[in-house]
Fold these 2 entries.
Entry 1:
Amino acid sequence: MDYIALAAALVIGLAVFCATVVCVVALCRAQRTDVVAVVRELPELAHTLARRRRR
């Protein structure tokens, strides 16, 4: 594995970690009703993204 691939993997890993932290903090700070509303919409969002990917 060369240094460029290693650096790219580290950058992608760091980006995923930062996005996870931001999402967890946002969920912790949100009102309970907001979190429930978002969780209820997740299956529809997943269905929409899957349908878009098939095109």
Entry 2:
Amino acid sequence: MTIKTITFQQNRVIDWEDCIIIKSFDDLVVLAFPFHEDTPNFHLNIADAFNLRNALDDVLKQKFLNAPKGDY
């Protein structure tokens, strides 16, 4: 299992920090919003996780680099 945390600033009336937790299991990616009790965790299969990544690419007009192939 891999866990990553993404923190970001919320710029509303009061500046406060928020985060998204991304957990990966064998064939599942879970997006959790720990500071939002009323928001359920999102469970994505691998294809849906790649669709989310591709949608971010499209919205940001950026392409993420692919991981290098081969033995290092």
